[in-house]
Specification:
By secondary structure, this protein is mainly α. It is built from six helices and two strands; from the N terminus they run ααααββαα. Its main location: membrane.
Amino acid sequence: MGKCDGRVTLVAICSLQLMAALQRQVFDFLGYQWAPILANFLHIMAVILGVFGTVQFRSRYLILYAVWLVLWVGWNSFIICFYLEVGHLSQDRDFLMTFNTSLHRSWWMEHGPGCLVTPVLDSRVAPDDHHVITVSGCLLDYQYIEVLSAALQVLLALFGFVYACYVSKVFQDDEDSFDFIGGFESYGYQPPQKTSHLQLQPLYTAG
């Protein structure tokens, strides 16, 4: 019963991770955030692998899924530090999220709740094919929206890691128990073969 509950809970966590990752992927595409787009894609693949391992009783897939979650927590921790400008990280100095290929920022910068965008005309600061804007009146700045999104990913990843380790351990214990009791592979079981040493005896009938 506990194994079944663990599998169901892990599948539910993976489903929440998929929904959160797909939602995040959409907004990263809108903001041309190439580094998060790549990371989200890898995360979606890893979560699908985790679901497959849970349904098909594959402990190795769950181990790979758990290892990825450790990397995923590290990446989202970096996202949090980046948008909060912890240490030497600065949003104004470089454009890490776009691989330094464009000047785009987070989509939430202009489309956050309550934000009022005002274009600055005749600005000499803007490079070619770009425009300068001012954003005001936001109920929540885009940095904190990105931080909350990354924090949600960390929370789901921690729950997923714990349940992936638990379910993987249960699967391994079941495999060891099967081998110990008498699995076909461990004992080299072969079905009985029909003997070919048959003796034919005459049959007498009363005349």
